[in-house]
C-alpha cells in the first residue's frame, strides 16, 4: 500500500467510557481520516459505528487493542462478520510483540495525550495510514457453503412423496446454480473448490462446497428462499493471526513447505511456515510442469518433502526446479503416524494424506527453530525471511541482521508522510495558533466536566452497590435458613417413608406367622386327639436336605417322612433314611429305580396319593388313610416278592436244563 492518506478512508477508534466486559454498554471516540482531514465523533455506541462503517465503507478500522470492540474472540468474530466487504481491522500496536501507543506516537512524531480518547483515536488512524500495525485475521482462506432444506419434511400424508421430490429438487437446482457460479469464479480468479453431495428422493438432501478463498471474495451469499437455505461461513482460525501491514500491502510471496506423494495419482499439500494449510488435493496423470506451476501459485517452496525413501526422481526434479531443501523422514512412516499427523487438517484420500503427512513431518523438524525465531525477532522484521536464512544454515542473530537492513525507498516514503503530518500541525499564523489554543481549552473544559460527571456517577453507583450488597446478604441469610429447613424436612420425610415400608413388611411377616401358628395349633390338636400322625418333611431327596431335616427336627425310628421332591436321589441317599429306621416314605412323584429297590429290600413302604395337612415344615396324615396306604403297599410288595421268587425258580430250572444238555449233570 502506498502511504497516501488521500487515497483511503480510515477509522481510528478508542474506548471512551465503559468496557465490553462490563454490564454498561461501552462508548467510543471515533476519528475519521479522509482526504487528509480528521473528523471527530465522541461517545458513540458500537451499533452506531457499524452504521457509519456501512455508510462510508472505510478501508481500515484501526485500534490500539481490538478487544476494546469485543469481550472475547467469539464476539470479535461476530463483529467482523457484520463489517462490509474488504474492510480491514488493524491493531496499530502490533500482534505477537505489541508496542505501546505512546511509544509508537513518539517514534512517528505524532502528538498524543494518552488521557484523551479523541487523541488516541486520531493517532490510531494516522499510524494505520503510515502502514504501522497488523491486520487482525480470524478466518482461514477457506469458505464453507452449505445448501440444505429450509424446512422439516415431517411425516406427511398421501402427497408426501411428491413434496419430497419438490423440496429435494429445489435443493438440487440451487446446488447446480452455485456450482456454476463457483466454476466461473474458479476460472476467473484461479481459486479451487470441492463439493460433497448427499442425495435424496427426487434430488439432493444437502450439498456442501469448500472454496479455498476468503469469504468476502466468494460470490455467494447466505439466504433463505422457498424450500432452500444457503449458509456461507468462513473457516475460523484456531488462534488470531496478525499480518503486518507492510507485508500485507507489498503482496510478498509466502515461503512454503510442499509435500508430494508421487505416482500415477499425485498428492500435493502446501503449508505456510506457520503450519497453515494453503492447498491440499490429488491429481491423476498430472505432469511435472503442471505441479511446478500449481505449487508456485501458493508461494515459494523452501522445502519439497515426500514420505518415500529414497526420494523418487520425479520429486527430486521438482525440488531442483525451486532449489528447495529436501525433506524426507529417516525411516518410512507407518499408516498410524500419517493419520495422527494429518487428521487435524482432514483429507479426502490416501494420496492427500501421505502428501500432507510428509509436509507436516518436515515442519515438525523445524518447529522449535521457528518458535525461537518468533520470540527473538524484532517487530519490524520479516520473520519468514529470517526462518529462510536459518534453514539454510545461518544463526538466528545473523539471519535477523541480514533481513533488518531497511529499504531506502520505504524509508523515504515513510519520512515524507511523517513530514506531511508534522507540517499539517504547524500553524501558518498567530490567528490559527489562537484558534488551536481556544479549541484545546474548550476540549479540556469539556473533559473536566465529563470527569466530574463520571465521579458523581461513580459515587451514586457505589452507594447503590453497597445497598444492593446489604440486601443480597439479608436475602442469602434467609435463603440459607429456608434451605436448611427444607433439607431437614426432606431427611425426616425419607426416614418416615423408610419406617413405614419396614412396618408394612413386618406386618406381612406377622400375618404369615399367625397363619402358620394357627395351622400348627390345629395339627397339634389333631395329633393329641389321635386324629393325625406327624409327618416330617424333606424338601428334596438329597443328602444335604436329609441332614438338614435330621439336624433341625431329628429322624427317629418309626417316623413318617414326606419327600417334597423325590427326583435325584439314589441308593446311597435312601440309605440315610433307612439307617434312621423310618416307618414309611410319602412321595408325590416317582423315585429312581435304585432308591426304590433300596426301600423295597428294607421293607419300607413307598406311599403315593396320601393326603397330608401341612404348615410350613410340619404336617400330619390321617391314621386310617396311612394304614390303608400301608396295607396296599404290603399287598403290592407281597405280589412283587412272589413274582421275584417265581422268576428266581424259573431261572434255576432253566439253568438246570442247560447244564444237563451240556452233560454237566
From TrEMBL:
Coiled-coil stretches noted in the UniProt entry, renumbered to this chain: 437-471, 496-523
Keywords (A to Z) from UniProt: Coiled coil
Segments crossing the lipid bilayer: none
Keyword field contains Lipid biosynthesis: no
Domain of life from the UniProt record: Archaea
Pfam families: DUF460
Protein name as catalogued: DUF460 domain-containing protein
Lineage of the species this protein comes from: Archaea, Methanobacteriati, Methanobacteriota, Stenosarchaea group, Methanomicrobia
